[in-house]
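Hi support team,

I submitted a single chain yesterday and got back a structure, but I'm not sure I'm reading the token output correctly. Could someone confirm the output below corresponds to the sequence I sent? I've pasted both exactly as they appear in my results page.

Thanks,
R.
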Amino acid sequence: MYVLLQLVICFTVVRGMRSEQDYLLAGRKLGVPMIAMTIFATWFGAESCIGAAGAIYENGLTGGRADPFGYALCIFFMGWFFARKLWERKLTTLADFYRQRFGIAVEKFGVLLLVPPSVIWAAAQILAFGHVLSASSSLPVELSIGFAALIVITYTALGGMLADVISDFIQGTVLIIGLIILSVVVAFNLPDPDLIQATFSPERLSFRQDGENWLSVINGWSIPFIGSLFAAELVNRVLASKSPETANKGAMVGGTIYLLVGFMPLTLGMIGPSLLPGLEDGEQILPLLAEQYLPTGLYVIFIGALVSAILSTVDSALLNAGALTSHNLVLPMIKQPSEKLKVLCARSAVVSFGVIAYVLALNADSVYGLVVEASAFGSAGIFTCCAMGLTQKRGGPYSAGASMFVGMLSYGVLAYVIDYDYAYLMSLVSAFVTFFVLMWFEEPYEELDYDTGYSLEH
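Hi R., thanks for writing in. Yes, this is the structure output for that exact sequence:
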């Protein structure tokens, strides 16, 4: 019934959809409450409720470096430094910025780097949906994943950004209520305090594992913070705001909500070993706690909350991948496409990437691992180009393209060939040094308006 409600919202919203701007950015009419809640709901997904709680269950606070702390810091930083700058450029997608600032070739290359993380992220949510359904029913995981994919693809392709945002508001509210209910019930039914105290040992309260050096710690923090700072899902929420002030405040409020709500699964993951010791799969901790501690009615609400966290994230990821592909790759090859054709292209891309995400989910072992890989893939070059392009006048297509390529190549070699411990940090340094050196050897690129082709200064 809860999932059916999401589909009803989509069918209702789709009737008022007239243009690509309506489908991809909700007409740029969103206020602070909607922006804050959709940022929170989009980011607070399966990795927060399922993956991070499981990582904290197994490793203590070290498992929470990415979530909630790293991602909350990422959202704050976006609102504080970059939200206004991005909104004022009147972009439709993040790849439009690359076209304006660095040219068409960098735009296309940027799309190739931005789309895979979104699809991987969507796969992580679909996998988590399968875990939730499997844990709360007799359905096998494979069948649960298939059902999850079907619902999510239909839901996202139909409704676009506006349905996404409205649903995010509902889902975010249900998620907060569900986590509060579980946290309160568990708090009132705690076992022997000595057992609980043992789970808060100095080792589990440290953000640094025994024997771990500081380079490894910095590498672990940099992936969620820097790797997701210019994630297209976050940028799209900024672009859908009705004003630059709304974009700024919405991101700051969304980051605050994220951090506060994130402390609940963090706490449950910390005390989990004393409540449910010896779990083979730590990512099952929250569903199993709910099943053990909640009566049937409250348990249903909590499962609805987990489904909310998943749906609110996966639809955003698929919508982003579809937007980048249709708006920046397909439509530029069509002369004067109609608004109807633009929306059709975006929907077709969403469905295609949904199928790919489903296949990835079937072959993945860990929700948390998928999300970390999504944050790391190609993001060193993405971050470098966005940060330098928004703050520096120098640097053109060669600086940007080379830094993207070097960032992607260095991470791939260091992480998958050499198995280097600080692969992401080194890829970030490589991308930045590449851009910084090359920008002194080329003239600043003349920025062009995406739609008219005129110089922005003109």
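A quick pointer for reading it: The first helix runs from residue 2 to 14. Let us know if anything else looks off.

Best,
Support desk
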